[in-house]
Specification:
Elements lengths: L1 H29 L7 E9 L4 H20 L7 E9 L4 H15 L3 E3 L4 H14 L3 E3 L14 E3 L8 H10 L4 E7 L2 H16 L3 E8 L5 H12 L5 E5 L2 H13 L8 E4 L1 H4 L7 H5 L5 E5 L5 H17 L10 H20 L6 E2 L9 H5 L1 E2 L2 H8 L3 E4 L2 E6 L2 E2 L3 E8 L2 E9 L3 E3 L42 E6 L9 E4 L6 E4 L1 H13 L6 E6 L10 H10 L4 E2 L7 H4 L2 E3 L4 E12 L14 H22 L10 H14 L12 H29 L5 E2 L4 H7 L3 E4 L4 H7 L7 E4 L2 H10 L8 E5 H8 L2 H4 L2 E5 L6 E5 L2 E3 L4 H13 L2 H11 L24 H25 L1 H5 L5 H13 L1 H11 L3 H14 L8 H11 L12 H13 L1
Parallel strand pairs: 1-2, 1-3, 3-4, 4-5, 6-7, 6-8, 8-9, 9-10, 19-22, 19-23, 27-28, 27-29
Antiparallel strand pairs: 10-16, 11-12, 13-14, 14-15, 16-17, 17-18, 20-21, 24-32, 25-26, 25-29, 25-30, 25-31
Helix pairs in contact: 2-11, 2-12, 3-4, 5-6, 7-8, 12-14, 15-26, 18-19, 18-20, 18-28, 20-28
Length: 967
């Protein structure tokens, strides 16, 4: 009995321990409080009627089960308890359920809602209550940077922009049309796409915005409007709800045929497997992008379990497949569970506001005390999830790569990938050395709409417009380039000319497709020109013309409004002026040298004369005398070297050195002058009356230009006086104005483009009277004549290629000979020279440098010697400054030196008389000896009595001789 009792007591203890152990594991899973485990309340807001909501709901439940099954011994002992709410796809309902979860349940985080419109209101609530909100709202207008408690558990729509741009760039499409739903999700992507396309010079030609409630008739009406446009590339940004109806109508409007290109964004591409087969059938040939989900055994096993679970929970759903939104929901709740465990948050508490009357439900909720800690744990969380690498960076899922698919058959087929590093590629296993690529050959085979394998060119003639409207200028002259007339009976426009023939040749024979067109003259009601060429080009920008054809010069200012094709005729600005025969010019002898060279030469003449005078003045009597004589000697000596007529004897070596160098310079100058003058009088028979455009500006002459041309603006930029500009419209007016001249009511020159001037001078009457003067400088060069089209027109590259083919063929030569005579030349201008033969100072810089060094060196050496010889005078302390100046002046004039020499060489008068008397006594004068011979004998007796000596006058010696003769 006692043993039995002991056995029963042991069994009772064992049962108590067992019950304790069971309660330890069961209570936490049940979520009941008071068990020692802490529950963390989390709200879930999903649209229960939406396939994405149904898929995500199953994924969220399975994610928590999988996570806690793998983390049973989690150290935090905190587990998420879900509180699910149905938003019913309504913005107000989503906001209401969020307030209910915060106020009545006091959840510490909210998962959802999924649409951007619903999330926009709930995000504001989360910011105010400091409760983290993990949503798959993809619109880039909802920014985590601006909403600190918003965490995007999906990739932003803006992350796919580069992949879409790469596809458009790969196929060379220049225009696209954006079609998107009128929701926060649809509108948010538009500015990003527009900027990205602009970066590759692709123009968003039109934006079509459709409301979710748009009727089928409205959708068809919008599609018919798109059919009337030229663009055939459409980028569609919609979710399946509207896209299903839209593409059904696209098929009905026959816009899913050959020549069309349709691109869909990731929101729709990711859900193709949940769209009904009839809709998929209407989307055949569409290209789409979607986030790439790497394959793994974990993902494959989960899909098997998920299908079974989903079928049990949603038996009424026939078509369902796992999508990336469900995988993101799975990874998002996993990330939240990890953050809850790491944060160590406690019981949910909300700090209530100070009691006030009339508080709203939102204000009465208060602020979560645990929210900031949970948000900090969620930020920058990173792990390998079912969707791939799940990395929340700066509040949103970091994008990795995109998969490019082609809608074929019952679903989509992979044709390539896009990554930010490598661009477009057929697979993701690429070498690190590969460069970024947007090559269409890196994609797999594509079946385009209409079951075509030909890449759509992206543009076609609009069905709503019969012909391309081509504007042509109306002008009175220069009909060889373009001329517009009307048929007298039918009033039809008849356009002719070189430009018209080139355009017809391009459009009719060299384009790969037919483009019907018609010419529309740019004229007023009375048949006159409606404006300048700038005005005509601007009409294309305004949409009044689809193109402009004529002698339209390609200019940077015009390129701001239109796109030009490659030029079909080169051009530059030149000047036509009358001939001038210099041989009849009375001042032709001045023209061999430019004015600067004349002035420099005269200066050096004076400089050389001055230096020679300074050096020779003190020792050479020929450079002495009155001031007037000395000044005259300076000019006479230097200018006499021009013809080598100088006769003055030079005594010093310094002056001789200077003269030798200067004579060489004069020799070179005179030889050059003679050669240039000879050329002017013989070789250069004809010469333009104006050699440089700067001469026209300085002389303020009148200048003519062609009516409607851009030349006036060019001349005004070159500081031409606008009042000196005159416009003309015919060759006859050109001739009349040039013949009159600027002073007689005409012009001194006509400035126009080279093709017009060549045509003008092709006339024998004009070529004998006028010549071309080329204008030097980049401002006078133009790109030539081209055809103008609207900005971003896809016709431009095709027409440009056709222009290249035409200009390289004989057809261009034929057109040129037909209208311009094949570039006829003028024999009268063979000897004409358009540049001046006058010599400039630059040609003799080195020569004048030598000519300057010689006299200046001689002058400095002379001054050094002079100062050295008179140093005693300068250093004397017995003389005042005035006396020193006087002595220095006397020394410079030679007075001091001459008197000193005379005192040394002059013999005493008595001695001289004795010598002379002895001579006459011992040697009686023969009858044959004349007085002059006696003088010569005396002068040769002593060089000290030469005529260069100033101390012994010659007349005194003669008087002595005469007195002796008388005796």
């Amino acid at each position: 009995m006692q043993e039995r009792r002991r056995y029963c007591s042991q069994l009772l203890v064992l049962l108590v321990v067992l019950l304790f152990i069971i309660s330890f594991y069961v209570v936490p899973i049940s979520g009941k409080k008071g068990s020692g485990l802490k529950d963390v309340d989390v709200g879930v807001i999903l649209d229960a009627d939406n396939i994405v909501g149904k898929v995500s709901q199953t994924c969220i439940s399975m994610a928590l089960e999988d996570y806690y099954a793998l983390n049973q011994n989690h150290s935090t002992r905190r587990r998420i308890v879900l509180h699910k709410r149905d938003s019913k796809g309504d913005v107000v309902e989503a906001a209401s359920t969020a307030i209910d979860l915060l106020k009545n349940v006091q959840v510490q985080a909210i998962l959802g809602p999924q649409t951007s419109s619903e999330a926009e209101f709930v995000i504001d609530i989360g910011n105010k209550t400091q409760v983290p909100l993990i949503s798959q709202a993809m619109s880039p207008s909802l920014s985590p940077a601006e909403n600190p408690y918003f965490i995007r558990g999906a990739q932003s729509s803006s992350s796919q922009v580069e992949s879409l741009t790469a596809i458009v760039q790969a196929f060379g499409w220049r225009e696209v049309v954006l079609i998107y739903e009128d929701t926060n999700y649809g509108r948010g992507l538009e500015p990003f796409l527009t900027d990205s396309f602009q970066g590759i010079s692709t123009q968003v030609k039109h934006r079509s915005v459709l409301s979710l409630s748009a009727s089928d008739d409205h959708i068809l009406q919008e599609l018919y409007k798109l059919m009337t446009m030229q663009t055939r590339v459409f980028v569609v940004h919609m979710l399946p709800f509207l896209a299903s109806r839209f593409f059904t109508k696209v098929k009905q409007a026959e816009m899913m045929n050959t020549g069309y290109a349709w691109i869909i964004t990731d929101g729709l591409t990711s859900l193709l497997n949940s769209i009904d087969p009839p809709v998929i059938n209407s989307m055949q040939g569409v290209i789409g992008v979607k986030p790439y989900v790497p394959k793994s055994s974990q993902l494959q096993n989960f899909k098997v379990r998920w299908r079974k679970r989903f079928r049990q929970e949603n038996p009424d759903v026939d078509r369902f497949e796992m999508n990336v939104f469900g995988l993101w929901a799975y990874d998002s709740i996993t990330a939240l569970a990890m953050a809850v465990g790491r944060s160590g948050i406690g019981v949910s508490k909300f700090k209530k506001p100070v009691a006030k009357e009339n508080l709203t439900d939102l204000a009465a909720i208060g602020i979560s005390e645990m929210g900031p800690r949970l948000l900090q744990s969620l930020q920058n969380i990173e792990f390998n999830g079912l969707s791939g690498k799940f990395h929340l960076l700066n509040g949103q899922l970091r994008p990795l790569s995109f998969q490019i698919v082609n809608v074929i058959g019952k679903g989509d087929r992979e044709i390539g990938f896009w990554t930010r590093k490598y661009g477009i590629s057929k697979n993701l296993s690429l070498p690190s050395s590969k460069n970024y690529s947007t090559n269409k050959d890196d994609l797999g085979a594509i079946i385009w709409p209409g079951e075509s394998n030909v890449v759509p060119k992206g543009w076609e003639m609009p069905t709503g417009e019969a012909k391309l409207r081509v504007g042509v200028p109306v002008k009175n002259g220069f009909s060889e380039f373009v001329s517009v007339k009307r048929d007298s009976q039918t009033n039809a426009v008849i356009a002719t000319g070189l430009c018209i023939d080139v355009f017809k040749e391009v459009m009719d024979h060299y384009l790969p497709y037919a483009v019907p067109y018609e010419f529309l003259p740019f004229e007023t009601l009375d048949g006159e020109s409606a404006g300048s060429y700038d005005d005509l080009v601007y009409q294309v920008f305004l949409g009044n013309y689809d193109a402009v054809v004529g002698d339209i010069t390609i200019l940077s200012t015009r390129s701001s409004f239109v796109d030009f094709t490659l030029p079909y005729m080169g051009s530059s600005v030149a000047m036509v002026v009358p001939f001038e025969d210099d041989r009849t010019n009375a001042w032709i002898f001045m023209k061999p040298l430019k004015m600067d060279l004349w002035v420099t030469t005269v200066f050096f003449f004076v400089l050389i004369g001055f230096v020679i005078w300074v050096v020779e003045h003190g020792v050479n009597k020929e450079f002495q005398g009155s001031p007037g004589k000395q000044v005259g000697m300076i000019f006479w000596f230097s200018f006499s070297t021009l013809v080598f007529a100088q006769k003055e004897n030079l005594i010093t070596n310094l002056s001789r050195f200077v003269v030798i160098v200067w004579v060489f310079v004069v020799l070179v100058l005179t030889s050059s002058y003679t050669a240039s003058l000879t050329s002017m009088l013989t070789v250069q028979k004809l010469k333009p009356s104006v050699a440089d455009i700067r001469d026209l500006i300085q002389s303020k002459e009148y200048v003519g230009y062609q009516q409607g041309s851009f030349v006036p603006d060019l001349l005004k930029n070159q500081k031409f006086d606008p009042s000196k500009l005159k416009e003309y419209s015919t060759f006859e007016q050109y001739d009349e104005a040039l013949s009159k001249g600027s002073k007689n009511g005409g012009v001194a020159a006509i400035i126009d483009e080279l093709p017009y001037i060549n045509l003008f001078l092709a006339n024998p009457t004009y070529c004998a009277k006028y010549t071309i003067v080329s204008l030097v400088g980049p401002i006078y060069n133009t790109a030539g004549f081209g055809f103008a089209f609207p900005k971003g027109s896809p016709l431009v590259p095709d027409v440009s290629r056709a222009v290249l083919n035409v200009t390289r063929q004989d057809v261009m030569t034929r057109i040129d000979e037909e209208w311009l005579g094949g570039g006829a030349t003028c024999a009268e201008q063979d000897g004409a020279t358009v540049t001046s033969d006058s010599l400039t100072l630059n040609s003799f810089k080195g020569l004048f440098i030598v000519a300057a060094v010689a006299p200046l060196s001689a002058l400095m050496l002379f001054l050094s010697i002079f100062l050295y010889e008179n140093w005693d005078t300068l250093a004397s302390k017995n003389l005042t400054i005035k006396e020193k100046r006087i002595e220095m002046a006397k020394s410079f004039h030679g007075e001091k030196a001459n008197s000193s020499d005379a005192s040394k060489r002059k013999p005493p008068i008595g001695e001289g008389m004795a010598v002379l008397a002895a001579a006459t006594a011992d040697c009686p004068q023969s009858p044959a000896t004349s007085d002059s011979q006696i003088v010569e004998l005396i002068l040769s007796h002593d060089e000290g009595l030469s005529t260069t000596e100033t101390s012994t006058p010659l007349h005194e010696i003669i008087e002595i001789v005469e007195s002796n003769e008388e005796r």
